[in-house]
Design goal:
Layout (H helix, E strand, L loop, with lengths): L1 H12 L2 H18 L5 H26 L6 H23 L2 H18 L16 H21 L6 H24 L11 H5 L1 H19 L9 H16 L9 H22 L1
Length: 273
């Protein structure tokens, strides 16, 4: 059991789980927009998620404590390095036009973590509400806009509606994390739950989900996708409404982040039914 727990913790802490969530959203976009499967792009996104998330999460820690890094953090660093090498390979396989479209979202990711405001002492993450907006915008861009551009798809109203829906869904997926972290976040980090309280955060998330449900029926796509979305919708509502500051260890970091993967599995099941 201890070994399995170590494996699970590495799987989560090394950002593999969140990378699978991004990969699942990419595959969902392929279904919604009827895009061809592109393994090079999907692996590029998967490995880029691991590299980007681990850089944001651990760069500062490694810089401050490089002489006394724990074994687990060193393992994550080594793993991230090999993921970066593989990322470079798949970036080479990806078209230049697609890579250019990724640049604004990559820049947002860097500015999210690197201090450059108020005398280089403040990151975008520390600006009120910007944390959730930036993360949701980056996820929506990478999982909707980039695959559409790579496939030569016209950036139509349909694509923009799907991107808006994805933005709203990612915002709601982040809220259980922010609720959990209320007691840990610094006073200067004004997240949504810190600003409006946990009860109002749940209500806000529910409103955004209802809006995403309306968008689901405005997006032109295959009819079989509606039932999987409804299953995902109700699961996310349940996890949002049950989110609190005192959560089980894996409530947000595993179960909430599993929801996009479950959505993709639902889609596969209904598509093959």
């Amino acid at each position: 059991m201890r070994f399995l727990k170590l494996v699970l913790d590495f799987y989560i802490n090394a950002s593999i789980h969140v990378a699978f969530s991004v990969y699942a959203l990419l595959r969902i976009t392929e279904v919604y927009l009827d895009l061809p499967y592109n393994s090079d792009l999907n692996y590029f996104m998967f490995l880029g998620t691991i590299t980007g998330y681990n850089s944001v999460k651990y760069a500062g820690v490694a810089k401050l404590h490089h002489k006394s890094l724990t074994k687990s953090l060193k393992n994550i660093q080594v793993f991230s390095f090999f993921c970066f090498l593989a990322l470079c390979y798949f970036a080479y396989q990806t078209s230049l036009n697609t890579l250019l479209y990724t640049l604004p979202f990559c820049l947002l990711t860097v500015l999210y973590a690197v201090p450059f405001l108020s005398g280089v002492a403040k990151t975008l993450r520390q600006v009120s509400y910007l944390k959730v907006i930036i993360v949701a915008l980056v996820w929506a861009g990478f999982t909707v806009l980039i695959p559409a551009v790579d496939a030569g798809k016209e950036i139509s109203i349909n694509v923009l509606l799907l991107m808006l829906q994805r933005f709203l869904i990612v915002v709601v997926l982040i809220l259980p994390f922010d609720i959990r972290d209320v007691k840990y976040d610094a006073i200067s980090l004004q997240t949504i739950p810190k600003k409006i309280g946990i009860a109002k955060t749940r209500k806000l998330g529910l409103m955004l989900l209802v809006f995403s449900l309306v968008l689901e029926y405005l997006i032109i796509t295959n009819t079989f996708v509606k039932t999987p979305f409804m299953l995902f919708f109700f699961l996310l509502v349940i996890f949002l409404m049950r989110a609190k500051t005192e959560q089980p260890k894996y409530y947000s970091s595993f179960w909430v982040e599993l929801l996009p993967i479950a959505w993709w599995m639902f889609l596969l099941g209904f598509h093959n039914f």
